[in-house]
Design goal:
The protein is built from 10 helices and 18 strands. With 372 residues, it is of the alpha/beta class. The chain folds into 2 domains: 219 residues, Quinone Oxidoreductase, Chain A, domain 1; 131 residues, 3-Layer(aba) Sandwich (Rossmann fold). The strands form 3 sheets. Strands 3, 5, 6, 9, 10, 17 and 18 form a 7-stranded mixed beta sheet that branches. Helix 7 links the parallel strand 14 and strand 15. Helix 6 packs parallel to helix 7. It is globular and about 60 Å long. Bound molecules: 5-beta-D-ribofuranosylpicolinamide adenine-dinucleotide and zinc ion. Zinc ion (ZN) binds next to helix 3.
């Protein structure tokens, strides 16, 4: 047992407070990780702002990296000291989806209960009451016990904040392009929404050899950042005039519109823009997550008549154990400049301020850094 510092919310929609919690030792199939970095992703903000119902109290955070400090019985203790990135969807490796290689659709992940595989949590308050860990990894904490299948060793030389981003935003955005959509070289691509996820879609489009990459955001600074990552064209969106945004995306992509449009915000209006900008044969890839209960619509006849497609992309259709090391190697080789997404490093007590900046659309990726 040890004491940790963690950012806790009592229930979805409430502000975070920094608390001292007790962390029990890892049990069989579990790993104790000292956290080194945790990115601030909009999915955390969806929970913080009550867009998604979640049980509580719960330690926030799902985009993390750390160093293995101890392992539960049955695991190889030689991994102690290894730097790792954490997957927020620890696969059970036994269900039908895991068996067919679609771990992002695992039906028995402990992440579904924000607990360990046996349904219990290693976290408690000083009064002994249990505290959950968001998606089983609750990375806004100085240390955590996590499922062993959530832990992916990183090659030497990968900075903690880069490893953290590989654990969510980068895997989600790059994977949407290379895994979910399998964008062929020479395609034209548009990305709507240039936060950590959308900027990763831009990097993924570069890796895929896209011919044109149209970066779309309301915020000019985000567009400029996308340009440094390889976007070739840009559209500054005005939410008041969605039709103009659609026309501008089509014009920038050429040939009647982009072959692929990635929506990386999660608003019905921009989902409809992504579909609306497609030429015949085009594909809209929905990456952004809406509030619960929201719908988007499109006119059915031209969609079908034009042979268009819509894909939902969860976690970039990534298999963490395979894809995280590959993303890390692409970073080390200079082909995936993940560090350029990071515009602020902060300490855990500044988390609410980081949420404010993210809510305002000001932040690219902010990362909480933990002291050794
Ligand atoms: P973010 O808030 O950092 O980025 C959103 C971007 O959208 C910002 O740059 C905004 O300026 C921009 N924006 C907002 N409104 C508009 C508009 N009307 N038109 C154009 N641009 C606009 O978020 P993020 O990158 O951390 O996450 C993006 C979404 O992806 C969010 O919904 C998150 O929950 C989701 C997500 N999905 C998965 C998945 O597996 N599908 C994983 C991780 C995150
Ligand atoms: Zn995330």
């Amino acid at each position: 047992m040890r004491e940790i510092q963690a950012a806790v919310i009592e229930r979805a929609g409430q502000p975070t407070t920094i608390e001292t919690l007790r962390l029990d030792d890892p049990r069989p199939g579990e790993v104790l990780v000292r956290m080194t970095a945790s990115g601030v992703c909009h999915s955390d903000l969806h929970v913080r702002d009550g867009h998604w119902e979640r049980p509580g109290p719960i330690v926030m955070g799902h985009e993390g990296a750390g160093v293995i400090e101890a392992v539960g019985e049955g695991l190889d203790p030689r991994v102690v000291g290894r730097p790792v990135a954490l997957s927020w969807y620890a696969p059970c490796l036994r269900c039908r989806e895991c068996q067919r290689g679609r771990q992002w659709l695992c039906t028995a992940s402990p992440a579904l209960r924000h607990a360990q595989a046996d349904g219990t949590t290693r976290l408690s308050r000083p009064d002994g009451s249990p505290v959950l860990a968001y998606l089983s990894i609750g990375t806004m904490a100085s240390a955590q016990v996590v499922p062993a299948t959530a832990v992916v060793p990183m090659p030497d030389g990968v900075p903690p904040e880069v490893a953290a981003l590989i654990g969510c935003g980068v895997a989600t955005g790059v994977g949407a392009v290379t895994r979910t959509a399998r964008v062929p070289a020479g395609s034209t691509v548009a990305v709507i929404g240039l936060g950590g996820v959308g900027l990763s879609c831009v990097m993924g489009a570069v890796l895929a050899g896209a011919r044109r990459i149209v970066a779309v955001d309301v915020n000019r600074a985000k567009i400029d950042l996308a340009g440094t990552l390889g976007a070739t064209h840009w559209v500054q969106a005005d939410p008041e005039t969605p039709r103009r945004t659609i026309d501008a995306i089509r014009e920038a992509a050429g040939d009647g519109g982009p072959d692929f449009v990635f929506e990386a915000i999660g608003l019905p209006a921009t989902i409809e823009q992504a579909i609306g900008a497609l030429p015949p044969g085009g594909t809209a890839v929905l990456v952004g997550l809406t509030r619960f209960g929201q719908s988007a619509s499109f006119e059915a006849f031209p969609f079908v008549d034009g042979g268009r497609r819509i894909l939902g992309s969860n976690y970039g259709s990534s298999v963490a154990a395979v894809d995280f090391p590959a993303l890390a190697e692409a970073y080390l080789a200079g082909r995936l400049p993940v560090d350029r997404l990071i515009d602020r490093r902060l300490a855990l007590p500044e988390l609410e301020d980081a949420f404010d900046r993210l809510r305002d659309g000001q932040a690219a990726r902010q990362v909480v850094m933990f002291q050794a």
